[in-house]
Amino acid sequence: MSQNVVNAEVPSAARGRRAPAARRFARGLSFRTIGAVYVWLLLIAVFAIWIPDLFLREETLKTVLNQYSITALAALSIVVPLTTGVFDLSIGSTMGLAGILSAWLLGNTDLSPLIVVLLGVGAGALVGLFNALIVVRMKIDSFIGTLATGSILAAITLGISGDQILTERVAGGFSDIASRDIGGIQLPVLYMIVLMIAIGFFLEQTASGRYCYATGYNPEVTRLVGVSVDRVRTLALVFSGCVAAFAGVVLTARIQAADPANGPSYMIPAFSAAFLGATQFRHGRFNPWGTIVAVLMLGTGSVGLLLAGAPTWAPQIFQGAVLIAAVGVTVIQRRPKADAETAKPAEPEPAPSAA
Amino acid sequence: MTAVATETLIAIEGVGKTFPGQRALADVSFEIERGEIHALVGENGSGKSTLIKILAGFHEPDPGSRIAVAGEELKALAPADVRRLGLRFVHQDLGLVAELSAAENVGLASGFAKRGPKVDWAGQCRRADALLARIGVEVDVELPVAELRAVERSAIAIARALDELHGEIRLLVLDEPTAALPPAEVDALFRVLREVLEQGVSILYVSHRLEEILGLADRVTVLRDGRCKGTFPIAGMDRARLAELIVGEEVEADAAQRPPSCATEERALTVRGMRGAVLDGVGFELRRGEVLGIAGLSGSGREELAAVLTGAAPGQIELVDGDGRTWSGMTPKRAKQLGLALVLANRHPDAAIGQFSIRENVSLAQLPSYVRGGRVRGAQERGAVERWIADLDIRPDDPDRLYSYLSGGNKQKVILAKWLNTSPRVFVMDDPTSGVDIGARHGIYGLVREQAATGAGFVVCSSDLEDFVGVCDRVLALVGGRVAAELSGAEITENRLLQAIVTQTGKNA
């Protein structure tokens, strides 16, 4: 085939046709690619017209960022396992466990806040390893396996707390990790940004990140190039355990109390954001950028509705509806395009039989 | 229509089928008579499957094609017509749900026996029993079919196809019914088929196994390169004659055209005692620069060899590498360290990642070499991929194009590029030319010769005999998991290969 190098249509190897810069730019801004950003802008416009006095204030921006940074941490925690094709449904319970554990350690030991945070994250790592034992080693479907571990973790959390809300020593220096602010923006927002960039770098710039996507799309192909798919998935679960635990610890510090019922409520928004995020920027791949945009969009809408005087249950309806609408629009938009492109190489299917 | 029109069940006249860029069938005419077992034979790509799919109403034949069933002329067959006319199909994979019982599988196809809104399970079992009894088979219809013998599963699929709930059954089309059967169970299937014939149903029997056809069929129609080479009575036919009809007269030049072998005296690897689901102690030596073919029917172990050799599938293997080190057992990781590359067919689900671009697929096996300071260097990765795109003439030449949007030939090139990129010592290829057009096929042969000239060894497992004639220095023919024959150099002709791989099938348990 190398005689074909001198092919009239392909004069040079280096030319390797990349789409023209202008077209790539246009494609990058299309609704198909960043639909959620447009929906977000539309929401801002709607609220700006509807309730300009309440909405168009610096306070609103800070509220959205500060309130939704923990949801963002929870959502970021599952992005990596999702790229490897593994669901971690235990993150909500992991958040709850780490939050209670840190409060219990503060109340019952003299450990410094920093050590408490590290122990909380360490507990998350153990949860991740336990999940890996079930999902990777025992080969139980991750959807079921992590649902089960989540249930066990919730029970442990309740046991540690004695079904009480723990507050001792939680205020003080410990709560600084969540409430210290820099120009009105609290530390968790910074954690969110740092983690988003770190995960983005990992998934898009490192070999291990590429292996994560490859594992999620086709574990067998990945195994055949000599990558240990089991190790990829184990580390992904340990990562989600650590980040979820960190989110739980930050949550406890932020509300200056640990309620065993707190963590699990973050699971559904986290998954919503991760799935909505996967439809953004990277055409179907789970990615941190889209996930954060999704969180902010959902946050803006929810905060805006509450400011406008909507009942407290309205944001949840809004979040569910937006998730369906955004993902639905993307699916519908993508459908005809994909057909047009696959139609080209229509080849006859030769005999599937052998010899 | 001939004078004996009353006896003709199906008349196929001048049937053609053109796919974009490829003529799959041209002017095929033959007739299937009532009450006969009519065999349809031909090599891979000869058009058998296309013809069956036309009969099944899956493909529309070219204008001018004529198909008449029991005297009723049909312009275009739709699946509903096919059912109405009493044509039934049992495909190689049988289409049974393994976890469900025979009674449930029958119900899935033709509806469940009901009592009010609820399924009448006792009645459903009786129905399945009755269907099976008609072809002389008795099985436990409440057991998941996965727990039954292979031939019993075949019988269930056949019994289900013969369910006359929707009218009289006239023709049963069987596609490679013995491919997945252990040799010992083939006779049992034949007994079932004779029972089917007793029901007044004709059979169109598609198989590669010449012995079976000679022992079972009344007449045989041979397809070659999409054309009908005639219909012949089995009486007076022998294997050599049939093989010659299938592959055509060997063109002397074919073998002469094969470029000279570049095999060296140096060993690339020695394999001993390969065992797997079917493989039963296969061993061979491969020299550097040598292209070794592995031929065999499905079920001969040929499909498994590439995967066991590279650790992709479980199995036993002892291997001596080029440096004289001995390894027992194989994993993909070890295969990579030893420079063994498994190049799968583009239609294999594990050949590449559809959601990845050309670039990501090509670089996947060699990613660490583009990493500097923890980052995959985009420019270097891209540069390497663009070189392969140019070298192999992959189209479109856009490294960011998704793999799943490529044509078969270009997919195959991407899979090749992925492994070429790792500079392997031995390429293990599995059906390297399936689903690629003639131009890409010769491109792949050229590439194999070129790499062999640089000292790489090749193990080419293929279902397509042309691959062996086109590119191999030596061929091992597998039968029943063992090496049954070895051909080399000028001995490698399609005719001899075909005879070697069909030898003793059915007798070697």
Notes on the protein architecture:
The complex is a heterodimer of chains A (355) and B (509). With 355 residues, chain A is mostly helical. Chain A is built from 15 helices and two strands. Chain A has helices spanning 21-29, 31-50, 52-55, 58-83, 91-108, 113-137, 142-161, 176-179, 187-205, 207-217, 219-224, 229-255, 267-278, 288-307, 314-343; strands at residues 181-182, 185-186. A two-stranded antiparallel sheet of chain A has the order 1-2. In chain A, a hairpin with a 2-residue loop joins strand 1 and strand 2. The longest helix of chain A is centred in the C-terminal third of the chain and has 30 residues, at 314-343. The radius of gyration of chain A is 23 Å and the shape is globular. The two termini of chain A are 26 Å apart. By secondary structure, chain B is an alpha/beta fold. Chain B has three domains: 1-86 and 170-178 and 201-252, Rossmann fold (3-Layer(aba) Sandwich); 262-339 and 425-509, P-loop containing nucleotide triphosphate hydrolases (Rossmann fold, 3-Layer(aba) Sandwich), CATH 3.40.50; 354-423, no CATH class. Chain B contains 17 helices and 24 strands. In chain B, the strands form six sheets. In chain B, strands 6-9-10-3-11-12 form a six-stranded mixed beta sheet, sandwiched between helices. In chain B, helix 6 (186-198) links the parallel strand 9 (171-175) and strand 10 (202-206). In chain B, helix 4 crosses helix 5 (150-161). Chain B is globular, with a radius of gyration of 25 Å. Chain B starts with 7 loop residues before the first strand and ends in a 7-residue tail after the last helix. Mean pLDDT of chain B is 88; it is low at 1-6 and 505-509. Chain A: It is a multi-pass membrane protein. Chain A: Pfam families: BPD_transp_2. Chain A: InterPro entries: ABC_transp_permease. Chain A: The chain crosses the membrane at residues 37-56, 68-91, 111-136, 143-162, 182-203, 235-257, 263-281, 288-307, 313-332. Chain A: This is ABC transporter permease.
